[in-house]
Amino acid sequence: MEEYKVRFKHAQFSHQKIEVDGKFFRNCEFKDCIIVLEKGETDLAGSRFENCKLMLKGNAYIVGKIIKLFTGKSPLKVVDMDEPLFEKVSKK
Question: Tens digits of per-residue pLDDT, 48-78?
Fold first, then answer.
């Protein structure tokens, strides 16, 4: 196992943009988050994702494009940079 300087166990994340490179997540919960992956240097063991989007950058984005060349389809929805990251909630 790699030595990660930042570690989370049983943490909950909601409505956040989380950059996962260089971090270790064990049994964490992510709800309505943007998960940002650039290098792939992460461990998400036993973690759960609910209504999250994965944003690929750098090398991860290149790997996603290569997978699309081989399979003919995108392995996941890529977040458009012009798309709002979170829906605005109207307060009454």
Answer: 999 999 998 999 988 888 888 888 877 666 5
Q: State how many domains the chain has.
A: 1
Domain hosting 62: range is: 6-71
Give domain status of residue 88, yes or no. no
Give a three-class secondary structure readout of 3-18.
CCCEEEECCEEECCEE
Q: For residue 21, what are its two tokens? A: 């490179």
54-81 burial, b if ≥16 CB within 10 A, otherwise e?
bbbeeebeeebeeeeeeeeeeeeebbee
Summarize pLDDT for 20-55 with one digit per residue, the tens.
999 999 999 999 999 999 999 999 999 999 999 999
Residue 13 belongs to a domain: yes
